[in-house]
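Try it yourself: sequence plus xanthosine-5'-monophosphate, in.
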Amino acid sequence: MQNKIIILDFGSQYTQLIARRVRELNVYCEIHPFYHVPELDESVKGVVLSGSPSSVRDEKAPVPDLSKIEGQVPVLGICYGAQHMALAAGGAVEASDSREYGRANLEFINRENPLFSEIEIGSQVWMSHGDTIMNLPQGFEIIASTRDVKVAGYHVPEKQAYGIQFHPEVYHSIQGLQILRNFVVDICGCVQDWSPASFVEDSVSQLKEQLGSDKVVLGLSGGVDSSVAAILLHKAVGSNLTCIFVDNGLLRKNEFALVLESYKHMGLNVIGVDARDRFLDELAGVSDPETKRKIIGRVFIEVFDEEAHKIQNVKWLAQGTIYPDVIESVSVNGPSVTIKSHHNVGGLPEKMNLKVVEPLKLLFKDEVRRVGKELQISPTILGRHPFPGPGLAIRILGDITAEKVSLLQEVDHIFIEGLKSNGLYDQVWQAGAMLLPIQSVGVMGDERTYERVVALRAVQSTDGMTADWVHLPYEFLSRISNEIINKVRGVNRVVYDISSKPPATIEWE
Ligand code: XMP
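Structure, out:
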């Protein structure tokens, strides 16, 4: 890795966005919590200080130790980061009337300053701050102002430091990416050579070195992350990689056979394990959602462990962990509860006593897809909707039986195939069907029926943390509803879920 930017996180909701933007410029970057300033080596070309929900005037405000950085490499402080540097050098930051939220325009710009090269006077930027820098210390020069905020940008030539009060990383800062480019490329001198191809090349050679001729085992789920991790590792260690794909009986219709086949086509050495009965037996009579999740997690670990023990001399367990999971677990605010409860197989490494290798832990989700494309993984695998680890178990409300699973598989199949054949699948982030624990009255022919109700759900999202329901065409919903009721015995009513997250969640359990 030739060059990188370090982003120090002070807890801003936008920190990941800064990283995304820098990577869009094809420059590698890493996020570190503000209290852990990494050692500077030759690869570090610059540092960005993020914003923060705190005020620099709070007693408990996050205070970084920048002594190792200042004057060594260029630093760009954004919002809180800018205020912190100004205050630490003896300036004044106050909660004032000149606070700004939302759009503002840069009415003054020092266009000779490299940070603002090619930025137009009047350029729209996004502000979100309660505090304002009122006085700058000696050696700080104002390089941009808005109507209400005099110090919208400053430069400290002696320290190679820059501060901006607005957020260049958000979309509403129209020339924000150009400002970041000016910093990262012109000021820090980064070469824009971070790309899926360079990632594959670097990772494969690092993995070769790290793993040598050791044997590695990896759990495949059919999802994007584990598939991309598998192909990357396969390139590095070839047949020393064994993949295990467990059928827990809670997958989509025909999913196990289809996905297993496509993995074999990709040249992977995959063991398919039919553990359907074992999972269903353990789940019999259980209705509580968290208990279901725990049982599935435990049984998965047991099955995986047994299979892995059949392979001689395994040293490594590979996992498809991606960057947002890593950042969450070291974030300023501590690990996120939501993400944690979704880590169904969390206990695996401890139980197996293997060393862990995580080849995707530096990538964002869409970068995983781009790397997958570079590795020529089929679009059907790369474009798959997310599917929860506990599968249909958390879409069957109440207890689970083989009969309910197969009924829901049929319903889900009709819905998903319908989305695909109507060109809607790729416009939806995630879709699926729920089997409700109620029956409703209906009429078929001359007879009254008393049968099951299913709910369809299709959402738009970027990361699953928030989501909105998709306005699928009425025509389409009407056809799918008819098809389900006509073809799936035992269902006489179909409803469509029109709730957003929050306050609802994507899954019903
Ligand atoms: P919720 O229902 O929390 O879901 O809005 C957000 C995203 O996470 C998936 N999900 C899970 N994934 N194990 C998983 O691997 C789980 O227990 C689990 N619960 C929810 C859900 O499908 C959606 O993509």
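One thing you can check immediately is this: The two ends are 43 Å apart (CA to CA).
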